[in-house]
Amino acid sequence: MARSFWSGYLKLSLVTCPVTMAPVISERDKVRFHTLNRKTGHRIRSRYVDAATGREVDDDAQVKGYPRGEDDYVMLEDDELDSVALESARTIDIDAFVPKESIEWIWYDVPHFLMPGDEVGVEAFSVIRDAMTQTGTVGISRVVLYRRERAVMLEPRDKGILLWTLRYGDEVRDEDEYFKGINDKPDPKMLGMVTDVIAARVKPWSPSMTADPVQKHLLEIIKAKQKGVAKNKPKAAPEKGSNVIDIMDALKRSLGEKPAARR
After folding, report:
1. What is the pLDDT of residue 233?
2. pTM of the entire structure?
3. What are phi and psi for residue 173, nearest 5 degrees?
4. Cα gap 146→23, rounded to integer Å
5. CA-to-CA distance for 208 and 185, rounded, in angstroms?
6. What is the DSSP letter of 227?
7. Distance, CA of 19 to CA of 93 (rounded, Å)
8. What structural domains does the chain harbor?
9. Is the pLDDT of residue 219 over 90?
């Protein structure tokens, strides 16, 4: 049985079923390092110190502060931070449905697997999942995750449901601020050539396309050092040539055509 980090209830009107949740993304296999004392080989421990006095601050003396001016903060206690959480922190109450395609991917944050919590709740869970599939909709709700109330989207996926936390409104910037002024009418001939270049490079999607070459080389270095052999990646030779790019010539080379001779 897959491990979960959250358990609660999925609710739609009068239909309720127990569910469990687990993150889709795992960083368990990421290469991680500890900071060591080079002379002793011992791990270095981080401590909180007072920025003015330099003295270490005990855990019970630490408090969250919101800056309101230079060296001036509003202090918030843990119970005050906890008070803003939802009362029903363990219930995902679906209060709205929207067409799946109406939410752009830019709002998607972190994906989670949502599963029935027990055999009794499987039927209710399956009915909600399949109803969303048939109507082409996704559910919108709110739930407390990672100590904060989050808007979430529930999307049917295979036998389960994918729960996405959605980004807050002030996190997504207005694209017009960055894209305005960009030429939106490229040369038709160049457009056709680039289309041909893309067509020649279309491949089926594979997770191997997202392989991490840095982690792979780090593991090779670690393995070599464990054997007492240092292994450094050779540096690539800098490319020579002009920085001025003739787009048409570059496209012709990409398509295997011979560029026209320059006058």
Report:
1. 56
2. 0.67
3. -80, 155
4. 12
5. 35
6. T
7. 12
8. 6-25+84-166 (2.40.290.10), 185-254 (no CATH)
9. no
